[in-house]
Automatic annotation (TrEMBL):
Bias (Basic residues) ranges: 20-34
Protein name in the entry: Cl43400_1
Ranges of Low complexity composition bias in the record: 1-17
Stretches the record annotates as Disordered: 1-34
Length: 34
């Protein structure tokens, strides 16, 4: 896969972490705030 990826860093992060680690944290914080 030597094609020009849009975000090599994002791809690496997604491969090591979930699809949206930051979004999940926000959801958890919002639920607790409510």
């Amino acid at each position: 896969m030597s094609s020009p990826s849009p975000d090599p860093l994002a791809l690496a992060a997604a491969s090591a972490s979930p699809p949206h680690p930051r979004r999940r944290r926000l959801l958890r914080r919002r639920r607790q705030r409510r």
